[in-house]
Amino acid sequence: MELDSRKKAILYAIIENYQETGEPVGSRTISKLECLNCSPATIRNEMADLEEMGLIVQPHTSAGRIPTDKGYRLYVDRMLEEQKERDLPALPMVELLGRRMDRVEELLVKMAQVLAANTNYTTMVTGPHYRKNKLKFLQLSPLEAGKLLAVVVLEGNMVKNNIITLEESLDDKAIVDLNFLLNNRLIGLTMEEINLALISALKEEAGGHSRVVVQVLDAVAETFAQDEGYPIYTSGAPNIFRYPELTGGDKASELISTLEEKKELGTVIGRLSTESGSRQDIQVFIGDEVPVDSMKDCSVVTATYSLGDGVQGKISIIGPKRMDYQKVVDTLKDTMNQLDRVFAKEE
Amino acid sequence: MELDSRKKAILYAIIENYQETGEPVGSRTISKLECLNCSPATIRNEMADLEEMGLIVQPHTSAGRIPTDKGYRLYVDRMLEEQKERDLPALPMVELLGRRMDRVEELLVKMAQVLAANTNYTTMVTGPHYRKNKLKFLQLSPLEAGKLLAVVVLEGNMVKNNIITLEESLDDKAIVDLNFLLNNRLIGLTMEEINLALISALKEEAGGHSRVVVQVLDAVAETFAQDEGYPIYTSGAPNIFRYPELTGGDKASELISTLEEKKELGTVIGRLSTESGSRQDIQVFIGDEVPVDSMKDCSVVTATYSLGDGVQGKISIIGPKRMDYQKVVDTLKDTMNQLDRVFAKEE
DNA sequence: TGTTAGCACTCTCAAAAAATGAGTGCTAAC
DNA sequence: GTTAGCACTCATTTTTTGAGAGTGCTAACA
User: Fold this and answer.
1) Which of B62, B55, B60, B51 is nearest to B15 (CA)?
2) Nearest chain B Cα to A254, which residue?
3) Which residue of A has its CA nearest to B242?
4) Rounded distance between C-alpha atoms, residue A260 and residue B113, angstroms
5) Measured between beta carbons, which residues in chain A are less than 8 angstroms from residue B137?
6) For strand C, is any atom closer than 7 Å to the CB of B49?
7) Which of A335, A344, B70, B132 has its CA 20 to 30 A from that of B202?
8) B147: buried, middle or exposed (CB in 10 Å: 19+, 13-18, 0-12)?
């Protein structure tokens, strides 16, 4: 069957109306609303066709229609295609960015908060993938007998620290030497690259302190291993309560659990990174496309941010399938643009 | 009216039954359950008395009784009094503690998770109050042109780092000097004690670099100022969905919001610190006693933990008013004991 | 051939009505 | 002081009813 322009118009009208109301949309509503100038009966005929094509469904006989995942997909794809320029009120992201850009985690958390508050959906941000960023420098300091403080700085000024409990004591001289050795050999490498071969090579060089070298490297590696290599921040979880379709039955509970545990969220991210990004790196998952069971009633819109120096991660907006895709996509684009502008300017 | 031992027994029976079922408890249930050996009618008489005393109420005429806040209070006070030794299966807290005790935040988060999973309630842990802990040492390192990395270590090995963007560049020598100066003057002081008078004194001494001193101190102070001086971690928020009385209406939404925002939770903590702790520093807030509006249907049990070196904070378990106070209190005591054992052994 | 009016039909939702049942308070007997 | 018996109350559940929204179909119309 042909999807002529009127059918499209009707489909989009249904989607947008359903977006606002959350109620199934009837033929009468459409006939009034539209500049199509045709009667409910005509709309009904068209709707029957759209239903046959699998783009809309009736929740029950004699109810209005709601879009199917396939319907949404069509709508979203067109939207991403069109790239229509809209002017949104810019988010006060720059303000955040201006101050204390240095603290990456803090910045990400705030960003998530602003996005959640602005969209009324839930936001999830993954921190940069530590293992993929290069070591900028590493500093060992004596903390107390048998304990070392290791401060690790990665490109992009991500800082992590770790307290290492040693099995043997080291004097200050030894620490300075070790410091020098490690920096000399490791700077510029990513965590991934600091592998076994390298470690045993260092062990040789360290001579008497070989055990310490291993301990230090283990501890450092462990620091970056937690959170499966990247932290995940969420914000606006309570926003799901705005959407009855997400809170019926145990759904709210399951969603909140998923968000709290965060681990499973990684699968979304995992899935993301393997698939090729669409234009501007914005990807949309609709309903069943979301690879997390408890989110089958949700849609997820994802973008990749970059803070320069290879520091990058994903921002995702999680909402009901009837989310305002246009707004979400535009907001994310705006955010990405702001980030780019700030971090491009800086370099 | 006299609260004789039978009345007490009945009250406690009601409380414990309601704890399990969440349903109002009728006279018949009690009469069967109890070794009191008396008929429902007798129980009814006693219940009428208990109601008159304000210890139990009927949600509506001809329903069973449920405990009032006052009833719970009586029950809890007795329980805290009795100090009955029960043997709970010990939580696998030690296991956590054994490994990587050094990372305080990580430890606290894990602890919250274990407690939440074990009790089926929500757990909230406040990190140590940074401002009250003494500075152990402070280290400035050049990061790149115009940027310094400041690593601050407090007693108890709490480490915070901060990237400082300077208005002027400093050569290595200057940084070393500044480092020395700051350490010399600030070690052993708490963040609270590093006040304006001290800062201006340092400014004098720093001579040419007075602006830098201020910037560094500001940045450090700001690091510890965030989170109002201490972080708050929560875990097990989804557990509230287990208790219908917490999820009716918008309650779930409000509770989850409160937990997510965390700020307001501080008021509980604030209230706590002013009131004198009961035995073993365990405090119980029942219903209206909780100083947070969205938690008027909850009870909160709080304990103070100490990780040695003045590193201390609060652990709170948040659940419905009909929570298993005995279990929660015992679990907290057990946890505190384990902490004490580990950290006492260490010193 | 596409559009429209009309109408019977279906199904949800809300309100009203009726049945159910748990639990009480009271009284009178033990 | 305790208990059996009984009438009464009130939330809950089920049933009934009615209203309303929306459809599909048919027949007329341009």
Assistant:
1) B55
2) B238
3) A253
4) 11
5) 141
6) no
7) B132
8) middle
- Residue ending a domain, choose from B188, B207, B227: B227
Provide CB contacts within 8 A for B306, sequence distance 6+: B312, B339, B340, B343
CB contact under 8 A, A103 and B151: no
Task: Note the strand C nucleotides within 7 A of protein beta carbons.
Answer: 3-6, 9-12, 21-27
Q: Are strands A56-57 and A66-67 parallel, antiparallel or unpaired?
A: antiparallel
* DSSP tag of A276: P
Residues in chain A: 347
Q: Identify the domain containing residue B336 by its residue range.
A: 99-128+231-346
Q: Which residues of A fall below an 8 Å CB-CB distance to B?
A: 102-103, 106, 136-137, 139, 141, 143, 147, 149, 151, 153, 157, 159, 161-165, 226, 235-238, 241, 250, 252-253, 256-257, 260
At B160, give phi and psi (nearest 5°): -135, 145
Q: Which of B182, B202, B227 is the last residue of a domain?
A: B227
Helix then strand count (H, E) for chain B reads: 13, 10
Same domain flag for A204 and A307: no
Q: Is A126 exposed, middle or buried (0-12, 13-18, 19+ CB in 10 A)?
A: buried
pLDDT higher for B254 or B203? B254
The DSSP secondary structure of B257-295, one letter per residue, reads: HHHHH-TTHHHHHHHHHHSPP-GGG-EEEEGGGSSSGGG
Q: How many other β-carbons are positioned within 10 Å of the β-carbon of residue B20?
A: 10
Give the tens place of pLDDT for each residue, B62-118.
888 999 999 999 999 999 988 766 766 777 766 666 555 667 888 888 899 999 999
In a shared domain, residues B121 and B248: yes
Cβ atoms A161, A151 nearer than 8 A: yes
Give the pairing type, strands A298-306 and A147-154: unpaired
Q: Which of B106, B161, B256 sits opposite A159 (nearest CB)?
A: B161
pLDDT digits (tens, 9 = 90+) for A156-195: 888 888 888 887 778 888 888 888 988 998 898 888 888 7
Residue A44 sits in a domain whose CATH number is 1.10.10.10
Same domain? B190 vs B297: no
One domain, residues A241 and A198: no
Rounded mean pLDDT of A39-58?
A: 91
* Residue of chain B whose alpha carbon sits nearest to that of A106: B226
8-state DSSP, A84? -
Q: How many domains does chain A have?
A: 3
Specify the pLDDT at position B53: 92
pTM value?
Answer: 0.89
Residue at A243 is within a domain:
yes
Q: Same structural domain for residues B118 and B259?
A: yes
Give pLDDT, residue B94. 62
Which tokens belong to A67? 């879009």
pLDDT of residue A342 exceeding 60:
yes
Nearest partner of B328 among B337, B318, B338, judged by Cα: B318
- pLDDT at residue number A50: 93
B interface residues, A as partner, C-beta within 8 Å: 102-103, 106, 136-137, 139, 141, 143, 147, 149, 151, 153, 157, 159, 161-165, 226, 235-238, 241, 250, 252-253, 256-257, 260
Helix count and strand count (H, E) for chain A: 13, 10
pLDDT tens digits for A232-250?
Answer: 999 999 999 999 889 877 8
Q: What is the CATH number of the domain that holds A242?
A: 3.30.450.40
Q: From the Cβ of A45, is strand C under 7 Å away?
A: yes
* One domain for residues B264 and B204: no
A102: closest CA of chain B, how far (Å): 6
- Do B240 and B322 lie in a common domain? yes
